[in-house]
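User: Structure please.
Assistant: Input sequence and predicted structure:
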Amino acid sequence: MPEAPDLEVIKEFLDANVLGRSVASISVLKSTVMRSLTNDLSGDLPGRTLDRVHRRGKFLLLEFSGDRWLAINPMLTGALQYCQNNQRTLKKTCFVLDIGEGQELRYLDDKQMGKVYYVTEEQLEQVPVLCEQGPDVLSGASFEDFGQRLKKFHGEIKGVLTRGAFVSGVGNAYSDEILFAAGLSPFRKSRSLSESELRRLYESCSQVVLEAMDVLRERVGGDIHVKIRDFLKVHNKGGQPCPDCGGNITQLTANQRITSYCRHCQPGMLIRN
């Protein structure tokens, strides 16, 4: 699942390479991911110019001239691909934007779990989940606001981080990284955190995301559809040495999602109901 660091770097790439380009045509190959709340996409989008790119949590918003938006929620396997028009079309390609000069912007989604909404700005509030998200992980919210918001949530801290209502832009991978940086067990109850632990969590949220963005800027280049996670410290590194203490990283799987953490650096017991 693309998260805040991935989408921020993709946004920066689109700002530098696609902004100001006009859509010559659109080909919808798999309509299951598309939702139009305004006019017919294929007839209405061509001729419009990409004016701005926004990120809201785990959504990427493409703003076109004439008040038209593509709101992209990539979910688990969605991705944007920027390529030449003669490059082989992958089977997981759902739609293709011809942006001229022999280049295309394609939306890929192997499991077709993501959704792309064609809307006006006023209709953005009708896009599921988009307006239900909490403050963005890079919003610069104060520590006091962060702490007050957390009081509204129950359950294990990893679940609170990934749900999106407390803070948006963080998913399964970066919640593991944030909790490792903060030295907190993913199974700690959110309301059990001391003030010093809460501050570590607050500082780690933006720190981990910004550091990941630095790495991704160096490595992604034009391959914005490629997910790069091998540099992460604990996520999906089960059985490997912890970069801090050298002990083995523990990895658990539940509901097709993994949780990776260091038992020594992130003390706390897993409690099963």
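The radius of gyration is 20 Å.
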